């Protein structure tokens, strides 16, 4: 059951990376790209030297996954991405690394709310053996035309973390099922007051009475620390303060626990 949960979470992770890589390709090449996760593919049919990049995940998730390209396709892709006819492949490979690094950053940003905050860094590697790893074949399309085949390989550490996350979601779903008697649908349109907390500070009454216009109160939160979103005094989300049409807003980066659980009795 854990293996099945890990596979489902890994496939979700792979799909998110495929979308992020497609977005980076689209931006770099100036043409729309799509990358899809396939059910199966005959990777043995590929020809030419395999080129591998390792993406190391650190933070809320730990482990590595690898992306596999093939040289002939990469050379064609590189000429589109860097708009160059340079014959030296290593220079084109560096452009590809930058593209993958951009996709890795997009992946971490898009999945932070789902898995928690993590970083993802890319480096080119060689001499790899993928025995025992979970593989997801991908197909890349430029517009409607298939252009490239590639594959993602997940190591055991990352699969274990993803399986643990999926197991935790399963337990959360069981807890959430206990909310059914509350029949939340009846009160879905009730407006609730939420507030942002940039920090707090305990002050003795003497200092409170001494506050005047121009007084400065130092809070217990650093500038780079996340801002908290509170509902009835409980933290339901954390994130970054932003400006929206001249008003303060919050870009959510973390949901500590399912919000519905705050309504459980």
What does this structure look like?
- Helix content is 35%, strand content 29%.
- With 265 residues, it is an alpha+beta fold.
- It folds into 2 domains: 2-167, Chemotaxis protein chec; 181-263, Surface presentation of antigens (SPOA) (Roll), CATH 2.30.330.
- A 6-stranded antiparallel beta sheet has the order 1-5-6-3-2-4. A 4-stranded antiparallel beta sheet has the order 7-8-9-10.
- Helix 1 (2-29) crosses helix 3 (89-115), helix 1 (2-29) packs across helix 4 and helix 2 packs across helix 3.
Quick gist of this model?
The protein has five helices and ten strands, in the order H-E-E-E-H-H-E-E-E-H-E-H-E-E-E.
List the helices and strands and how they pair.
Layout: H1 2-29, E1 33-37, E2 50-59, E3 63-70, H2 71-81, H3 89-115, E4 118-125, E5 134-142, E6 145-154, H4 156-177, E7 194-197, H5 205-209, E8 227-231, E9 234-244, E10 247-254
Antiparallel strand pairs: 1-5, 2-3, 2-4, 3-6, 5-6, 7-8, 8-9, 9-10
């Amino acid at each position: 059951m854990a293996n099945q949960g890990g596979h489902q979470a890994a496939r979700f992770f792979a799909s998110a990376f495929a979308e992020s890589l497609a977005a980076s390709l689209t931006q770099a090449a100036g043409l729309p790209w799509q990358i899809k996760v396939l059910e199966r593919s005959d990777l043995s049919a590929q020809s030419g030297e395999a080129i591998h990049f390792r993406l190391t995940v650190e933070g809320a998730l730990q482990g590595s996954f690898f992306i596999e390209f093939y040289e002939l396709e990469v050379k064609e892709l590189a000429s589109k991405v860097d708009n160059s006819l340079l014959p030296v492949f290593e220079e084109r490979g560096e452009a590809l690394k930058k593209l993958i690094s951009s996709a890795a950053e997009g992946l971490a940003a898009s999945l932070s709310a789902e898995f928690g905050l993590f970083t993802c860094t890319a480096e080119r590697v060689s001499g790899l053996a993928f025995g025992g790893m979970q593989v997801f074949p991908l197909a890349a399309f430029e517009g409607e035309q298939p252009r490239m085949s590639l594959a993602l390989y997940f190591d055991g550490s990352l699969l274990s973390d993803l399986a643990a996350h999926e197991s935790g979601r399963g337990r959360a779903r069981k807890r959430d099922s206990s909310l059914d008697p509350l029949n939340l649908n009846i009160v879905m349109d009730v407006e609730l007051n939420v507030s942002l907390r940039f920090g707090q500070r305990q002050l003795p009454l003497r200092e409170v009475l001494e506050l005047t216009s121009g007084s400065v109160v130092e809070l217990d939160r650093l500038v780079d620390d996340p801002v908290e979103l509170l509902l009835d005094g409980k933290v339901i989300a954390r994130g970054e303060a932003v400006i929206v049409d001249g008003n303060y807003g919050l870009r959510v980066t973390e949901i500590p626990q399912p919000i519905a659980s705050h309504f459980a009795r």
